[in-house]
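Notebook p. 47: complex prediction with ME8.
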Amino acid sequence: MPERFYITTAIHYVNDEPHIGHAFETVAADVLARYNRLFGRETFFLTGTDEHGQKLQDTAVAKGIPPKEYCDQIVTRFLDVWQKLNISYDNFIRTTEKRHIEVVRHILQKLFDAGEIYKSSYEGWYCKYEERFWTEKDLVEGNCPDCNRPVTKISEENYFFKMSQYQQWLVDYINQNPEFIKPEFRKNEVLGYLRQPLSDLCISRPKSRLSWGIELPFDKDYVCYVWFDALLNYITGPGYLSDPDAFKKWWPSVTHLIGKDIITTHAVYWPCMLKAAGIPVPKTIFAHGFWLMEDAKMSKSRGNVVKPLDIVAIRGGDAFRYFVIREMTMGQDASYSEDAFIQRYNSDLANDFGNLVSRLSKMIAGYTDGRLPEPATYNDEDVKIKLGAQELLPQVIDLVDSFKLNVALEQILQSIRALNRYVENNRPWDLHKQGNTERLNTVLYTASEGLRIAARLLFPVIPEKIEEFADIFNAPIDALTSNEAAEWGWMKPGTEVKPGVTLFPRIDKKEIKKVAEEKAKSEPEGIIELDDFKKLKLKVAEIFEAVKVEGADKLLKLQIDLGSEKRQIIAGIAEYYKPEELVGKKIVVLTNLKPAKIRGVESNGMLLAASKKNQLTLVTVDDDIPNGSSIG
Ligand code: ME8
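Predicted complex, structure tokens below:
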């Protein structure tokens, strides 16, 4: 029976477009899927989007469109990015699809009928952002322990899944199955979590509070908790209800590739849910680390979110894929910076690999009849190259199977560097001058065949470029990636070679700047996202003192009352208002502007005013609005 490989990513929330973290996860799953196909294993790759829940409902409401319509819009952005990154998923699942809703309702009913779900009243602290309840002791300084946002006390009737009864079973299972949670330190983290008593899981939300979800089959006043819904995508995808034979084929030989922040839902809730439903648990859950931006956490409020398409615009999808896979030790965090990207691309792809391809193909064109020459007898150095190339495949299989994708790439690049040294040592240009055709032919063949074997193993990471490579050596990509092509000697002497293609033109910093400027020009001017506007903290303030700034005709120094605090701001309004006219006015102030010194005087905020030619009027609000009220 052939070996099988089923890989999933987390399904991504569609409340925003994909960032480098989402893209890394999807590329990494794609690379694993493509390697497994290359190793001759039957493979199924599932990815998709998580479309229910509070965050999504809130975002759609804020944009003024129905949630499903909003999901339809954002999902196209995900699909666009996945297409540009060459993601070869076998199935894309959206949790709003009928096939998934049926599975969720089926499992809920099954667990309800089996007495695994009960109704109870509950009082707890609810974090709207994380969409989950916390107990008093979980809170950190009164806030959500996960995201540090404020929580609200909620008391309501809900449905609960009897998760607590599976605690001991789960601990034993984790201990007995070292393949289940990876890397090892994450396994220990989960076991640490399971040292505390496990609670039952609240799996419903009353429709009065949240309507955007899958209705419980046994109570139409409730929808399903978004995580209970989302996790089930992994069984919907391969056909749990729609195609039981396919499901049996793929399940449970599944690897869930997820980020470190969602390990508890995957390694605790999910196996308990499956156990209760009588479905075997997944083979492996692998938690990768996070992408940081120049060592800092990415966040919208910091404005440092790395968008994959900005990098793709520089040198295409393959350059992005190579960078993220080479740069991240799976399991650890990694950091993006433009310098690191340029450095990695130029040294590995442009210099080591791209240069060798172009030099070799040119030498074959220049020193032979444009065809791959017939090698004569191999000397020790040639044999070493051949053996190195033959050892590469088993090494890469081992590394890929243990999720060491960055090491696998380094191994392949080392073999390419060895080929570069081999060409330098054997100096085909001198052999050509000397008329030593036998040796010249052997060197050119050995270097080309070594390069082809390495390039074949780069296919899962840079598929588009390896297709171009295959074209240079006149091999259709399907042939190059077939099992037979793993063998030394597969490329036959006499094969026509196309010379001089530059697979990876070098990049410099100036060029990146130009690409960014062109992108900025092509975007509609002045359009901002709602989230950009939300960054502005506008508040009502009352002016209680106003004086002129000495030596500055246009400036007034204002003392303002923001309810919870008093501040000083400097405003260029002296030509339009006398200081005494201003006292008592309720104005609108941008409060989170970086403090600045204007003519040596501290200004902490900025007032809003309407202006046209020689006119200026302050933006004011009615007197009965309390100082400090938010605007927006
Ligand atoms: O958690 N670096 O969706 P999501 C690397 N819908 N990975 C990152 C990251 C970063 N900076 N930020 C996020 C959800 N991720 C749920 C999953 S699965 C049944 C439901 C990863 O869109 C994150 O860890 O917030 C997760 O694996 C994935 O991106 C989707 O995150």
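Notes: The chain has 21 helices and 27 strands. The mean pLDDT is 93.
Next step: compare against the earlier run before touching the bench.
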